[in-house]
Amino acid sequence: MSVVDDPIRAAAVAADRDWRLAVGGHALAGSGGTYTVECPATEEALAEAPDATAEDVDAAVRSAADAAVGWRNLEPRERGRRLRALAEALRAHTDELAMLDALDSGNPVTAMRTDVEWGAEVLELFADYTAQLGGETIPASVENLHFTRRAPYGVVARIVPFNHPAMFAAAKIAAPLMAGNAVVLKPSEITPLSALRIAEIAAGILPPGTLSVITGNGPDASRALVRHPLVRRIGFIGSDRVGRLIQRDAAEVGVKDISLELGGKNALIVCPDADLDAAATGIVNGMNFAWSAGQSCGSTSRVLLHTEIAGEVLRLVRERVAAITIGSPVDPATRMGPLASRAQYDKSRRYIKAATDEGATLFHGGARPSGPGLDRGYYLEPTIFTGVEPRMRIATEEIFGPVLSVLTFSDLDDAVTIANGVDYGLTASIWTRDVSTALRLAERVEAGYVWINGSSRHYWGVPFGGTKSSGLGREESVEELVSYTELKAVNVVV
User: Following DSSP, what letter does each residue of 383-413 receive, concatenated?
Assistant: First the structure.
């Protein structure tokens, strides 16, 4: 392995090892051989990950089906204890998991330490929901007993993206496991390492087969998982295009329950009475420049400024963006690293060119940053365009990169029209000092998760999910837990 950056070379030792699939409690080589995982900070090989075939997927699913029988019959409180133990074990490996994520995703290691903590917190959240798995009695008749109970599906497939590898690997198995299912997890081919390591850590805590992790380069392993007849429940996070492909693949082979957390082109609206300093901070935080280089479905990548305050807000935003430290993802001082892959980098660059061609004004960034070690890798400055019109591509299409579009409005009806004028509806952010205005806008915007005088942060227990092309279902809440169960009605005729 040739990595020119010394700190990265030193850190990459942990990644340069024999990685194996986690299938039924066993560490197995992928039947398809291996594929190369790249470090986006150096564009060099980082590790070789197992390339799973359909046969590997079948083995993982069948072992999960066997394990699901015993797992569902554990007392819910015991399942909760296992999740808590896993959370504590992940915390004990925080530095290791965060460094793996920094190396293969490019996200800053400091932020990735927080991601590991958040994954552990979500495991604990669902462990707290033990009592929420109950049913109810129904007074349908006087002389008989009618009640409902919840039963797990059996085998759940969870397919997660590259932008928060360890957090998603931990957080997105929590609800299906707590509900009594066994899980087969498929991480992104770009960032497979922390998920494979989490499976190793979990092996001493969860019964064999309860959690399997498969990795593979390209769509084949994911398609085999989605189409497997024993997989009746699927949870996916990713693009709307792939979400629709999953729906199609699943429908071709059976009737499956699918939840989708998909893309976003989310609006942040700043009213003229807002606290402008706070709003400027919220704009920068909401874009997730300094966490995942803007690679977040929840990023508020469209900023709608009232014409009266647009100039001042932009001045404040530029100050904050210019202060973001861009650098090596393994450096604790770095706040923004490179994009996760060549494909993500090229995509952002194409949108920057398209914005210029369509007549938008480049207000900040738009190029490779300068500085030691930044002459290679998929680094891109935080980029802001002004003069954006609602029908421009950068105002309607998800970029999934560090490109922010700024539009203006003169009255709130215009703001709502612009905000709702896209196919997505994941998040929205509203900035105003007037409670009535805030609540009216929150009601009118087409989004599943709304902040008022806030942005970016998720609150565990509050249902997260979108409308329109941003997905189906809700996560991070009781709603997610019960979605991994089926409702059974029982009628006792006396």
Answer: EEEES--TTSHHHHS---SSEEEEEEESSHH
